[in-house]
Amino acid sequence: MRMRQLVVLLVTIAAVAVTSVVAAAGQGTLPDQSARTAVRLRVDTLASFINSVAGLRVRVVDGVVDKIASPRVFILKHKRSIGAARAAIVLVDGEATLREGTPVTVTGIARTLLGTEVGPQQPSPAFTEKERERIDALPIVVASTVETPDGVRLVTSR
Predict the structure, then answer these.
(1) How far apart are CA 105 and CA 101, in angstroms?
(2) What DSSP character marks residue 33?
């Protein structure tokens, strides 16, 4: 009987130790945003569910450049032009070499306009009046990558 109590005690101690290590591992800093898996969405889905996906890393597929506000801000629409759904893409680091009608895939953090201006990302983008007019009331992706469907990167560092 004594041996059984000793085994139960050792198993309990081991379980507590493993639980403590797992709990402590989750209390560190947040993982690098670029290493996290992105939620794959189309432009119309992002536009419909921005309040549900704001703050998440997203990968917007099947997008086509609709309008260009500046080298760092442009508007995407769905390649099949389903409805009036649009999304604004904002580059914090770098500029994109684009043309209207170019198909692109964008990866970044989904935000609202207010969330972009006062959110935790640093540096926070400051918008010109022209950029603000173009992106007002649109869902925003603070982009880390913009590329063609075959993987050619379209962003250059400043």
Answers:
(1) 13
(2) G
| 100 closest CA partner among 65, 135, 73, 134 | 65
DSSP H stretches of helix in the chain: 2-25, 43-48, 50-53, 113-118, 129-135
Q: Are 60 and 41 in contact (CB under 8 A)?
A: yes
- Give me the domains of the chain, ranges plus CATH numbers: 33-150 (2.40.50.140)
Instruction: Tell whether pTM > 0.85.
Output: no
Q: For residue range 33-80, what is the model confidence (pLDDT) as tens digits?
A: 445 788 999 999 999 999 999 989 999 999 999 999 998 899 999 988
Virtual CA dihedral for 151, 72, 51, 79, nearest 10 degrees?
A: -50
pLDDT in tens, 105-152: 999 999 887 766 666 665 556 778 888 788 888 999 999 999 999 999
d(Cα 65, Cα 39) in Å, to the nearest integer?
20
Left, alpha or beta for 14 (phi > 0: left; psi -120 to 50: alpha)?
Answer: alpha
Furthest-apart CA pair in the chain: how many Å? Answer: 80
